[in-house]
Write a structure and sequence with these properties.
CATH class: Mainly Alpha
Strand content: under 5%
Order of helices and strands: HHHH
Helix content: 55-70%
Distance between the termini: 26 Å
Number of helices: 4
Radius of gyration: 14 Å
Shape: globular
CATH topology: Acyl-CoA Binding Protein
Structural class: mainly alpha
């Protein structure tokens, strides 16, 4: 059996996560998935300090900054791992 490539596995995990309800995803996990998705799709954040963020966006930006050291591939792998661990429960 041929193993699926990273992008295919990531897209499948993203589709699964998109169908999960807020009750299935605790807020901290949702925030982590958000940050990993941003890192996986956009790479490291270019933070503009002059922008005015509300509190929700500040948390999201902070979560992204915290994982900005990850490569795009590492972010995709961690995203997939989180979704797989949630499916095992």
């Amino acid at each position: 059996m041929i193993e699926k490539d990273l992008d295919t596995r990531y897209q499948e995990a993203f589709k699964i996560a998109s169908k999960m309800s807020h009750t299935e995803l605790p807020p901290d996990v949702m925030l982590r998935l958000y940050a990993l998705n941003k890192q996986a799709t956009h790479g490291s954040l270019n933070y503009n300090h002059s922008e005015n963020y509300d509190l929700r966006n500040a948390f999201k930006t902070n979560a992204w900054i915290q994982i900005s050291h990850l490569s795009i591939e590492e972010a995709k792998e961690q995203y997939i791992e989180i979704i797989n661990s949630l499916l095992e429960k």
